[in-house]
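FYI - complex with aspartic acid, inputs then prediction.
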Amino acid sequence: MYRTHTCGELRLAQAGQEVTLAGWIQIVRKFGSITFADLRDRYGITQLLFGEDLNAQLDQQPLGREFVVQAKGIVLERTNKNPNLATGDIEIKVTAFTILNKSVTPPFTIQDETDGGDDLRMKFRYLDLRRNAVKKNLELRYAVNRAARNYLHENQFMDLETPFLIKSTPEGARDFVVPSRMNPGQFYALPQSPQTFKQLLMVSGYDRYYQITKCFRDEDLRADRQPEFTQIDCEMSFVEQEDILSMFEGMIKHIFKAVKGIDYTEAVPRMTWEDAMWQYGNDKPDIRFGMSLLNIKSAFLKNGEYPAKGQLLAGTDFKVFNDAETVVAIAVPGCADHTRKQTDELTEWVKRPQIGMQGLVYIKVNTDGTYKSSVDKFFSEAQLKAIADAAGAKAGDLVLILAGAEERTRKAISELRLEMGERLGFRRKDEFKLLWVLDFPLFEYSEEDNRWVARHHPFTAPKPSHIDTMIGNDPVIGNAAEYLKHPYAQIKANAYDMVLNGNEIGGGSIRIFQRDLQEKMFAALGMSKEEANHKFGFLLGAFEYGAPPHGGIAFGMDRLCAILGGSESIRDFIAFPKNNSGRDVMLDAPSAIDQKQFDELQIKLDLKQ
Ligand code: ASP
């Protein structure tokens, strides 16, 4: 037997017992004729005490960092207790030890505060995983996994596996493809999600399905994305949107309770996509704090003139506002005392290419009741007050205003709101606020192809009252500049996202389950009948054999864990993640393959430069 106890287990109650531990040497300290060593395993750290009697053996077999050691000894009460360690009241007086394996000097210290940089830690990820900080993250991930499974099992969901080598199921990203040796010249695709399979399982009658599974998307990796990631993927039959919302609100609350001990009893608020976009400038608002947007033009321009050019507030002559498509404001609490230097810095911040604004206008609502702004020349104090009041500013607040083209300005003010929320400490990592965003547009305009693409995916059902608009109108857009006027721009979907602290953690929809409507959907996306049959004939066929009404959702497991763990980075919660260029630096993958492998696949490599 290698061990009687783990390194995290022993307490004063075991004093006097003979025990055997096994683990890794974290550190060795020599004090005169005695030697102390910290022995670590997954469960904790226990101090070993080697007396004089073992010095000869220690001289012959010196201990080093990360050596694997088995130590037999007696549990003793420590004279010098360590309150920061769970086992800090005791130590083991070693009577015999064996070095089970040596270690070369590790490339970084395996401690909470390590000296290893990111790249080095990723290259030696198996050592990084020994660190307590990383281990805690994986433990949290396992707790989330367990809680989800328990909840879904209790609710009659079946965990069913679906294949990885499939035919492309486009969901807006590029597929990873895998060549088939047995079918030369043909390729599988790795699933972007199990979407069509889970729908087929509904057709088969497995009315509650789930799977915690990998999805693969060959996207340009924006910050903190992974080419393979994990979803808690779910589907249900005979449900309406309301059934899904309540089932999965339940699941998330169960996870909160099981993993964080949080009783999230209040109902998750709901907001339409339209409201989210106008109140927060984005479709995944962080509602841990207020500072919602004021659309100044629609607030002050009368007679439905918005969006339009025109004088903002009678008699004002500020071209920047008058000419802009959109003028939006937020009231930042308690920042009226910002100095010139601070407001200049904010102006620079919004001018950065990522934000892309021309400038920033501010109004200070001073505590003495006066108003001071960067546009005093153009606006009377009464007008400044009118804007500040409409933005919900109180005495001591700073109103920040951006003007420009609608989409960019809305995005910019949303970023500015998040930045100010961050600076003011409103985005607390230990506060969790959930939100459902509903009624997403069914279609999105693709500038590249001048056609409609599915905003969620092509299997999402339009709102029943919008089906006629979809069927009754030609999808062709014609003049690209006019796409917003096309009736399709108004069609909403039975689609929903769950948002946590400003991050989309889950998304899904009620599905189309009739062949003819699904065919019309494919046609609306510019697919010919042949193309639709070639790509999705199996699904269209299945819909002819009694497909039940169904819908589902998938949660991003990695992101959910990162937020619950208070981290910005999903990589911290994945045992073997890839870096920002999609590389596994430990394996050095992707990499070239042998000529023999190409030959077997009957593929000749001819890389275009
Ligand atoms: N398959 C979808 C996704 O990956 C989720 C769903 O609609 O259930 O986003």
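The pocket of aspartic acid is lined by residues 171, 193, 195, 507-509, 552-554 (CB under 6 Å). The radius of gyration is 30 Å.
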